[in-house]
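Listing S7. Sequence submitted for prediction.
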Amino acid sequence: MHVRDLLNLDLLQEAGLTVLAGEEHLDAKVEWVHTGEIADIGQFLSGGEALLTAATGIGHSPTEMERYVNELAEAHACCLILELGRNFRRIPQEMVDAAARTDLVLATLDEEVPFARVTRRAHAELVNYAHAALERAILIDEALGTLILEGGSLTAVLELLAERLNNPVVLEDGAHRVVSFGRGAGRIAPILRSWRDHSRHGHNLDPDSSAVVNLSTGEGRCMWSAIHVRGENRGRLHILEVDSPLDDVARLALTRASSSIALFLMAERDKELSSAAETSLLGGLTAEGDFSPQEFISRAAGLGVELDGDLVMVVAGPAEEGADGEASVSTEVTDRQVAALRGALRKLKWPSLVGSIGGVPAAALTAPAEGEESRFEELAARLEGGALDGAHLGVSRKYRPSQLPQALPEAEAAYLLGPRLGRESIHYFEDLVLLRLLAPLSNGPTLANFAEAELAPLIQYDDEHNSELLRTLDAYLRCNGNKVTTGEMLHLQRRSVYYRLNRIEELLDTSLDDPDLRVRLYLALRSHEMLAAGVARLAG
């Protein structure tokens, strides 16, 4: 129950309740409702109480009135409700001013009301509120337990918790590093960028503190609970007040969730924690302007991975997904694919950080020495028969650690566009010469306008008729204008190829025999392909 709920009780409203001070604090939580007439009642309060009184024992001098209000505020009472008539006909301004200064809600009643009836009603509401909060927390805990028993990942567990509490949830390790998180409906990126500052501010405990759930009331208000596994501190679980106020449901759910996650981590024996930590570290490559190569290398070393010398990025996945430029797979499937990539690299004793970026397995690893590029073929062979069976790899150029963020989009581009240019299972960004020439134009309208100007009639026709004129034109140009080979590539009869090519010429109002036109169309197709694959950020 909040102060607002208490003041809205019909018993009080019918007695002519008026709020004189503290209207901005009506959402303060009410722990209990007391009555009392003694002047020094503040010493008997423990915080969060609303006090009903006729003020018969507080005296009439401004000093006594101000002291009375100050003592209630110092005891962290949330509300003072004064019944007029017995001691005051109106509330002295000194009391109103004192309440306003101390953030205490001050209200008056114009008529007498049986305080016993008010407290009974209020306490019934408090009990009902606590019971409802407990029931909601139990339902959340049961949902988390079911997900864990069904083999859900740590990220999935935190996402579910964040969704049910409508606030972001963050799990950190003992070194204040983000292991995993659930974003809920809120924006969590700004919080993660300054996570260490948040985690180290207002989160300390007295050595003798036994609180299961703690509250940090500084900038970035949150509830948090320590995670202990077999007596060892494994980090802390935070619920951040971003989208909804923190309440009893959040406190009770956090109590239960911290125990569930401790059991989860104990069962996983560090496997999930390590995987999540690697994914979190790789995710930092996408945070523009916030990447620190020294911190990246240090955190990698802390995870037992020594990344020395030049580095490369690798993105891996089934060829059919990369060909479409998207990967619509579940979190569980991605987790298995990441585990397969990590396992293959570990067996090759190849120093690497492996995780998921944008739902696709990726790795940062030491670059092979000159003449050892065949190690990528060994990696592809290791992936056969597992969750990444038949996968293809996109490989960036070599970079120093400080340039690693630039390597990620290169690996993504090779992964997305490589299968269109050849049937090999390994695609190197170095070989995508045309893409590298077009990439600087993709950050503005130039490339999109060029592709649209050349291909708009074909794109519109394909959309309206569910046809494949673009695909036919691409095959024709790749086959150097050989219609027989084009038919073989597309598995079409010769007359079908002729019909499609004639339709293309009609729509473009030109002849495909023009060599200059063929060059323009080929460049336009590659531009359209690149933009559709979403690799425009290569230009950055």
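Caption to Listing S7: primary sequence and predicted structure tokens for the chain studied. Residues 440-539 form one domain. The CA atoms of residues 101 and 176 lie 37 Å apart.
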